[in-house]
Amino acid sequence: MQAPVDLRGRLHHPGAAAQHVQAAELERGQLAWPQPRVGGEADQRGVPRVDGLGQVLSIERIVPPPAVADRLQVPADTASVLRRENVFWADDDPVQRVTTYVPWEIAEGTGLLAEEVGHPYGIHGIFEDRGYVMTRIREEVSARMPRPDERRDLRLPPGVPVLDVLHTSLDQRGEPYELTRFVMRADLTGLLYDVPVE
Questions:
Q1: What is the pTM of this model?
Q2: Which of 9-23, 39-53, 157-171 has maximum average pLDDT?
Q3: Using CA of residue 19, residue 190, residue 71, residue 58, what is the dihedral sign?
Q4: I want to staple 189 with a disulfide (CB 3.0 to 4.6 A). Which of 5, 98, 150, 184 is the partner?
Q5: For 149, phi and psi rounded to 5 degrees?
């Protein structure tokens, strides 16, 4: 397990979609999740924002859970995806667990297999180099009580729920090529969506 990457004093980007797009930059230590906590500077809504730390938990090729296989349109009975798991911190608080799934045919032989992806534009630079340009996203947002592993990784006090954001990236052909689950402490997190309507 890699030691946390210090992201304090770096650039902020609000919103789950923007956070996702820059997940690789976080892993490389170039950007910071805008995670709220008690104290610190507040945004225009009064939600405090601070910098964070990122820690890689695992990177491995796996047989995907059925819901992942269905959303990525990959086989559910073979090791058809790469899974990257991270925890992101705000000061001393782990506030977000991020699990990214990528079809193995896209991930194989790339920097996605390393703790530091090594591309100047992060994981999305790797996707674009392989011909997958994000043109649409789908996000499913729910609130629930945490599973035991999430409670442990996020150091949740009893009774604290999580926000569960399931993000799917779709390419220029409308095909899914990446799925990320953001599990966020509901007591230390806010979501902001600012999306044009066409």
A1: 0.74
A2: 157-171
A3: positive
A4: 184
A5: -70, -35
3: pLDDT strictly greater than 50: no
Task: Give yes or no for a contact between 117 and 5, defined as CB atoms under 8 angstroms apart.
Answer: no
SS3 state of residue 104 = helix
The whole domain housing 78 covers 5-185
Residue 96 within a domain? yes
CA distance 79 to 94: 30
The number of folded domains in the chain is 1
The answer as to whether 136 is a domain residue is yes
Contact 85, 56 (CB under 8 A): yes
Partners of residue 161 on adjacent β-strands: none
91-141 tens-digit pLDDT: 788 999 999 999 999 999 999 999 888 888 888 899 999 999 999 999 999
35 CB neighbour count, 10 Å cutoff: 28
Q: Which residues contact 195 (CB under 8 A, 6 or more apart)?
A: none
Residue 142: predicted pLDDT: 95
Cα 75 from Cα 25, distance rounded (Å): 29
Q: Which of 2, 58, 4 is nearest to 32 (CA)?
A: 4
Given this model, what pLDDT does residue 96 score? 94
Q: Count of CB atoms within 10 A of residue 120's CB?
A: 10
